[in-house]
Amino acid sequence: MGRQSLFLPDILPCPGPGRCEFHTSIFGGSDDPEAVPEVYSCPRCQEEHPTTIDPPSGSPSPTCPSRLESLPTEILQDIGERVPMPYRALLAFSSRTLHHKLGKRAFDVPTRDRLLLSDLLSRNMPAYATCWDCRTLRPYYSALAWPLLKIHRKERGIPSSIYGVSEFLMTKALAYCDSQRKTGNCFMSLLTCAGTYIKPWADNDKSYAEDAGFSKDDLQMGLQITYEASGRISTKHTADRLVTHVQYRINLPRPWTSFAVAQRFAILRDFYLCPHVYASKVQYRDPHDPTFPADSSIKHWLPHEGPVPEATLTCSKCSAEFRSTVEDDKGHQSITFDVWSESNRTCNDGLTETTFCQGTSYSNGLLGNSKIRGMFESAPAI
Questions:
Q1: Contact at 8 Å (CB) between 366 and 359?
Q2: CB of 81 closer than 8 Å to CB of 30
Q3: Are 129 and 140 a contacting pair, CB within 8 Å?
Q4: Greater model confidence, 289 or 271
Q5: Which residue, 2, 128, 257, 370, is the most exposed by fewest CB within 10 angstroms?
Q6: What's the pTM?
Q7: What is the number of structural domains in the chain?
Q8: pLDDT above 80 (res 130)
């Protein structure tokens, strides 16, 4: 696979090591492109797509110039002056002859048009997408091109439980929808995830987990957390936005109300919902507790008090919004965590890129609290 090609399993947003069960059923479990099927059947659009996207093969150079290329340089330059930017630059890119005759002025693209030019060029460059901040085309495989890359969990210290959509994947998904789903791969199927994340127990938590009633397999393998994730395109703003939703579910051996605070922390410890918020933060806190809103104010909710109230939270450092719900379905106890997030043209990890361009820091006040969830629910399912 060439450096200009895009190997789709490289940019999957699946939580945990490896691919989720949904994407494993499509691409298999190998990281070797030679061991992955050349085409896959997309469950979204019911069509087959290549697993590796290659740039369009150029047609062989003609032995004689075209009628357009044969025009005198002065006439071509006059034509170029009448073609609006950034299409003048695209005309110069169409052949070496036109590139030479139109000259450097064809590439004097105003700042306001550079993003459009980069987006148009990226249509034929599958491994590249446009950095929102510096308007530069960057490849997804570059070690320094964050936030366009796939999620680099180890390098950035991003927990493996997070469903991570990179700006690169977001850009490709939006471009696919902008083209009315007529060109390129169905990137929306890459946004769909479903599987089980195994959260290791902290050594000090195993005794609490055992007392809480978890099985020996759970204690040895880790806590099983099932999840389902999807993305939608919101068109209610000046620019289309990708909004995502992931729901995590933990099946419990006993009612949540029967667990001591230490047992609840053992279950939720180190389970991150975004790079900044772990699940134990998204719990009902008794406003009458004198320590409210500290973590220690997780109330020991008793069964006779009725259902545990729903808890919500908004991250102050990224676009994520959270909700936790305790459920009792015919004796089957579980706790679920919903995470809604918007692709805000940054890596969404609270860090700024300082190598090539200055990333824009995210302010949750941009859309206000509870806006992301509303955007997702009002956008049509794809």
A1: no
A2: no
A3: yes
A4: 271
A5: 2
A6: 0.80
A7: 2
A8: no
Write out pLDDT tens, residues 201-222.
999 999 999 999 999 999 999 9
Token pair of 345, please? Answer: 């043209």
Which of the listed residues 115, 145, 177 is the one where a domain comes to its end? 115
Q: Do the Cβ atoms of 275 and 159 come closer than 8 Å?
A: yes
The residue type of 160 is: S
DSSP conformation class of 310: P
Give the confidence band of 133 by pLDDT, cuts at 50, 70, 90. Answer: low
What does DSSP assign to residue 202?
P
Q: Identify whether the C-beta of residue 225 lies closer than 8 Å to the C-beta of residue 335.
A: no
Whether residue 85 is found in the same domain as residue 206: no
227: its two tokens: 């999840």
> Same structural domain for residues 211 and 102?
no
- For residue 7, the cross-strand partners are 52
More confident residue, 78 or 119: 78
Per-residue pLDDT of 14-26, as tens digits, reads 998 889 999 999 8
- Measure the CA–CA gap between 156 and 224, rounded to whole angstroms: 25
Cβ neighbours for 108, distance < 8 A, ≥ 6 positions apart:
none
Residue 132 lies in a domain: no
Residue 324 and residue 194 in one domain: yes
Give me the domain span that covers residue 92: 73-115
